[in-house]
């Protein structure tokens, strides 16, 4: 098979009907087991067959995936041509900056700037920059948005420029909602159409929780912005043929148990089952029983249980959800007809599909849960939260605890350990789920009616993932009760879940610092890594929206909710959680209000003109961007400064030093923090030298457009523990051979002056968390040539390759500890001088200060041939630019816009 022409069919067999590439027709060509392939793989296979051009996708690629075996070795590369790319602003700003820099490089080399243009449609949602500066007041939304625009004027000017410069970008301005909730409610179409063919939506996004769309049957996952640019310019998203873990869901959730309880339980369980890097596909009677919104909650957190996807096939409940969110009835009918023609409709039953592994999970086993205080997979049964917190409080820091006396939690005056200073209903994970939001509103109503209030030390916030949530909370009459408890809407954006918490009250901040208080935050989010939610809050607990309200009332996580009251009602009687928890029938009675298509059509009817502030953002139109060398927000990226069309020579890694030696589960937040920029830090000193005051520094997330700031933030996280300095926290290291202690940035710059390349050594699960490009860009700019770890998270490994940094993995049994490495050694990486081959074995040569040496085998975690090609070019960006500056781009077609 050299192309897909003999697989073309018309929908319903009707002349003039839409054409599609038929999977049953492919099965008839010698792949009788194709119908037993996981549904997610068959959707990928359709893309391969449709895009089989002999260049990006070959017949061998199609045949290999069509012949997928559940237990085979994973040696074949899958070059997926994606249907859409999804950007959010923190990672999207660097993407459009790099596209702009590519245009400038093209111009410098005598080519037309407009040559650089999206081939794949791009949805760009501005949702990550808003912070909770104002709360618990009716005008909080507009006040926070005003502050957002004041901080981000330059960034927003760049974003507006990109939308006019590139035809393929569809832009959703600030204040509309959270990217992933907008994706399922509005952006994702039932079918895409191009060149007369219809095909399923597929998407990669510059945010790890892009997987949320898996809940409505769309193949998609998070990538770094580095990979996203390649996809935007028509390059395949390449990966090894995956294992597919089938998770059979049985039974039903018990009354009073929420989708949040379920996803926190699944996250803990699937992490233990080691599904990292796999496609997870849910099936069975329990999967069919779940609502589409519940499925999206589960799919959202796929990166938190380590999977590439958490996929649910399309069935009647999916179509009901799409209809409720305002999709056209005729389009849905065509979608169903297409899926049925392809054999893709319906939740698979037990035994219908061949999976690499099959796991079984009983929904009836789920109990109320929270997770924390540092990772989403650390589930705690709700009744044991108090005792679990007390155990953590007393446990030594070296064992993951806080090293505090439990007696201090009750003996002191003022705030005590475990007191909640931040309570937020936030994040697409849960604000997208009407049942969870209505439950929170009902609990608030019951609490207000009993005379309960929220303690003054608790900062409250409600940040819905779309304006639809406000619509149904107002229509059901629940919003006023949330308002009364301080949960007034503060923004339509990510806010607290990704660190946009804003300031705590000055007196509270002062007491936390003065007493080293282990304060707590409760939030309905998906991530609670150290210092992510707020740098002063060390105990962060994920929970359902209703529990956020309940704990805000209680004011502390040191409460046994089965035995202790949340508070005292206006009648003088204790009020327990069970007194306020809404019954399933109460939630069910209000749910239809959230399924009114008119709500969704109204919310998305005129997104471009929703707020005058957006219309007032100024920019200079034109095909190229007008860089301002004085700007501290937007600086021209340096990646193409020395770009040549010729391939660069390989630079061997010899005489290298360790910049840092890190432990297990180091997150991308640790490597590239999104926290506020501190005065006196390398980034703060840089900004101060540019004439900015500390109150203007803002945070690393919004400063991603300035590489000078971001490289100074590499490895600068306040909780980073560098084992080269035992007992230390923060971005500090040791320069060798003199042994001087200094910041990571200063040390890297000294090594650069000395001509010394750098490596980073780490433990297992290196790079967990969000798909932060700067977790790869900052190390590269600091001079890190290789990261040597016991294991890598998928997205971060790809990002390292995309920036030309080698990911190298210790063989089983080897580690920093087994080799007794302390960072004083010299390192060389041998075996790459003849070229780079996927997954080859290389050697780490270690020369110790005492004259002894060691030679250790490492596995090169460049897994596919296209990844090897990216690395040979110095990264994805130069690879793509060389492709586009050749005789013709390998992009598969002309630039497109949104239909």
Explain what this protein looks like in three dimensions.
The chain is an alpha/beta fold. Among the domains are: 5-68, no CATH class; 369-599, Aconitase, domain 3 (2-Layer Sandwich); 649-673 and 718-872, Alpha-Beta Barrel (Aconitase, domain 4), CATH 3.20.19; 674-713, no CATH class. The protein is 33% helix and 16% strand. It has 34 helices and 32 strands. The strands form ten sheets. It has a seven-stranded mixed β-barrel with strand order 24-27-28-29-32-31-30. A five-stranded parallel sheet has the order 6-5-4-9-10, sandwiched between helices. The longest helix is centred in the first third of the chain and has 20 residues, at 89-108.
Task: List its salient traits.
single chain; Aconitase, domain 3; seven-stranded mixed beta barrel; alpha/beta; five-stranded parallel β-sheet; globular; Aconitase, domain 4; 899 residues; 16% strand
Classified in CATH, the superfamily of the domain at 369-599 is Aconitase, domain 3
What is the strand tally?
32
Per the CATH scheme, the topology name of the domain at 369-599 is Aconitase, domain 3
Largest sheet: 7 strands, mixed, barrel
Shape: globular
Mean pLDDT: 93
SS class: alpha/beta
Which radius of gyration do the C-alpha atoms yield? Answer: 26 Å
Low-confidence stretches: 887-896
Helix % is 25-40%
The fraction of residues in strands falls at 15-25%
Number of helices: 34
Q: Reading side by side through the largest sheet, how are the strands ordered? A: 24-27-28-29-32-31-30
